[in-house]
Predict the 3D structure of the following.
Amino acid sequence: MPINEKIMQSYQQQKDGRRRIEDYIPEYLDGDMRKNMLDFAAWLRANKMSPGWAGFANAWKSANKGKTICYMHLGSGGASNIKDVKFVVAAFLENIGKYEETIISEGLQSLLLDNVFYCVQKPPESFPPEESRHYALTYPCNIWGCAPGKDISICGRELTNICRNGNRQHFWFHDPNGATLGCIKRLLELEKKARE
C-alpha cells in the first residue's frame, strides 16, 4: 500500500477510536525498536502520563498537569525534515531551569545538546554545523512569523535560533535506542517533579 494511503487509513482508524499507540507500534517498528517503544509507552502509562492521540496520523502526546510533557510520532515525518525516521520522541521540558544541575550531575547535557530542534532559517554559518542540526519543518516554514527562532541558555551553553513554534519544544529525539529512551524517562521524571 502506498505510504500516503497508509497514513490516511491510520488517521481514519485513529480518529474513529482505535487510538492506542501500542496498537500501531508493531506496524512501524520491529526488533529492539519495537520492544523499546512498547516499553516506553508502558512506562508512560505506569507513571500517569498515558499517551493519547494527538489529532493527526500516527501522533500521540502525553500530558502532565494539563500540559503536554511528551510527544511521539511513528513513521517518517513527525514535523521533521529528516528522511527515513522510524519514530520521534519529543520531551517538553518547560521547567528545565529547575533541574539543570541534576542534568549536568547525571551527565545528560550532551544528550540534550545533540537533539536540539533548530529553526530551518538558522543562518548556515552559525554553530552547530548544518549536518548536525535537526529542523522543524522544511524551508521556508515561518508560517507563524516565528523565524529565525529564539535563543536559549541551557546547561551553560547559549543556543541560537531554536524553533519557537508554540506547539513544539526544544528537544526531539529521532529513532532513540533503549539507552536514550532511558535518559528521556529520567528527563520526564525531572520535568514531572518540577511541575508539582
